[in-house]
Structures are given as structure tokens and as C-alpha cells.
Specification:
Elements lengths: L1 H23 E4 L4 E3 L4 E3 H4 L4 E2 L23 E3 H15 L3 E7 L4 H12 L7 H4 L25 E8 L25 E2 L4 E2 L11 H16 L2 E4 L2 E7 L7 E3 L11
Parallel strand pairs: 4-6
Antiparallel strand pairs: 1-2, 1-12, 3-5, 6-7, 7-11, 8-9, 10-11
Helix pairs in contact: 3-6
Length: about 260
């Protein structure tokens, strides 16, 4: 009987192991499966003093509900991206700033959730908060929603700054995930030179201080190996990302690996 029970236990462990591997897998453009979680870390293990505000675990996001694949309010990155983010954080803390993370690794099932939501034209419950000037039927055409995301490769992070002195967010002039030109890094200024150019020619604008705040974050990220996106001031990807052609599927939850 003991031998039989040992056999059953071993079989159960093997099945659990296969299930975990399946949940951790990613598949690159060549069809090769990769065990993703072993290459990822909890951001808070590497940068313990970041603030996490994981919008897709909450209902405060452009969809209005928790997004598929977000099982815990945590943030994951590849080890390489997390190490570079630590260097960013170390630099900014000397200036009196800390990092707040909105999103990092995003499983493919979350992206699929966005696609389903965008296809449901009638669901506009969060329009006023995130896309008041954009017709939902144009979200695909204007590339606010796409079927693949760099986040799913594991080295992209959405973030902002907070002041260490009082814990308050630094004013960036437009909220995270705002669908509109106000989110562009070059809105009212030149991000290459850091020059503020004034009014946007529309009813919305950002101040010189708000533009300068965006540049503080941008310059620190670029100095430590990240590249920006031309449509979102909060979005950065590690330039030398380790999985440039792999889209992972494992859910967002705390990893057990210790550094």
C-alpha cells in the first residue's frame, strides 16, 4: 500500500509540474515553447520601495472590470528589465522621487480580453474617464487596442513618479491609459530636447511643469537602457529585451523564486 501511495503521489506531483509549466509557457514566432516564469521576478523583490497600483487587477481601467490573467495585484518583469529599473529608481530617489508601477508583464489572455472589449462597441461605461474624445469603433484603426502587446514579452513597464516627501503622484498632465494626443510624449513639447513649446492648439494642454515632470521620468528611463513609446508618456521597454519575439501566457501572480 505504501508503495502504491508513493506512486500516486509522484504521479500527482508530475501532473502539477506539467500544469505549472503550461501556465508559465510562452511561444515565440518560431513556435518554440519557453518556460517563462523562471526568467521573471517580482519587481518588489528587486525594487522594494516601488508603489504598485495595478490598474488591471482593479476595476478602475478603461474596460471597467478586472482583466483576465491578473490573479494578484503584483507586477512582474524579466530579470534584466527589473535590474535596469532598479538603476532608474536608485537615480530618481536621489532627486526625491520614487516609482509607481501601473503595469508590467501582461499575459496574452489579458490582451485578448482587451480585444473582446474593444469589439463590443456598446460597452462604453468608462468612456468619460479614459477616451471621451475617441469613438470606440476606431480603437483598432487608431491602434489604441492591438492583438499583440510588447508587455507580453515581459520587459515593458508602465509607470509614473511620486514624491518621496509626501507620497503624492507627480503631476504629468494626463492620466495613465488616456486615449488621446495628450498622452503623447511630444504633446506641447519636444522630448528630444526637453523644450516646452506651449499650447497644443486644442482645448486641452499641459503646463511647462507637467511637461518637465514627464521629461524627468523619460530621461532616467533612457539613461538606464529603456526606450520610449511615441504615443504614451508612461510606457517604456528595455532596449535589449531578452525575449523580443516571445509572447508569454502565464498569469500575473507572485512568483516563488527568491533572488
Amino acid at each position: 500500500m505504501k508503495a502504491f501511495m508513493k506512486t500516486i503521489r509522484a504521479a500527482a506531483l508530475a501532473i502539477c509540474g506539467l500544469a505549472l509549466l503550461s501556465c508559465s509557457a510562452g511561444r515565440n514566432i518560431h513556435g518554440t515553447s519557453i518556460d517563462g516564469a523562471r526568467y521573471f521576478v517580482n519587481i518588489t523583490d528587486v525594487v522594494p520601495d516601488v508603489i504598485l497600483e495595478i490598474r488591471y487587477y482593479s476595476t478602475y481601467n478603461f474596460v471597467g472590470s478586472r482583466i483576465d490573467g491578473y490573479e494578484e495585484p503584483t507586477a512582474l518583469l524579466t530579470r534584466e528589465a527589473a535590474d535596469s529599473l532598479k538603476a532608474v529608481n536608485d537615480e530618481l530617489r536621489k532627486m526625491g522621487y520614487g516609482l509607481k508601477i501601473y503595469d508590467a508583464y501582461r499575459p496574452q489572455k489579458a490582451v485578448d480580453h482587451f480585444v473582446r472589449w474593444a469589439s463590443d462597441i456598446a460597452d462604453t461605461s468608462m468612456k468619460r474617464s479614459f477616451y471621451p474624445d475617441v469613438d470606440k469603433s476606431l480603437l483598432f484603426e487608431q491602434q489604441y487596442i492591438m492583438e499583440k502587446s510588447g508587455h507580453t514579452r515581459g520587459s515593458t513597464v508602465d509607470l509614473t513618479l511620486f514624491r518621496i516627501s509626501d507620497g503624492k503622484d507627480v503631476d504629468m498632465g494626463a492620466t495613465f491609459d488616456w486615449f488621446g494626443v495628450e498622452s503623447h510624449p511630444d504633446f506641447c513639447g519636444n522630448p528630444q530636447t526637453g523644450e516646452y513649446l506651449g499650447g497644443s492648439g486644442s482645448s486641452r494642454t499641459i503646463t511647462a511643469e507637467q511637461f518637465a515632470n514627464r521629461m524627468i521620468l523619460r530621461r532616467a528611463m533612457l539613461r538606464h537602457g529603456f526606450k520610449p513609446l511615441d504615443s504614451e508618456w508612461w510606457h517604456f521597454t528595455l532596449s535589449d529585451e531578452p525575449f523580443p519575439d516571445t509572447y508569454f501566457t502565464f498569469p500575473v501572480r507572485m512568483l516563488g523564486n527568491k533572488l
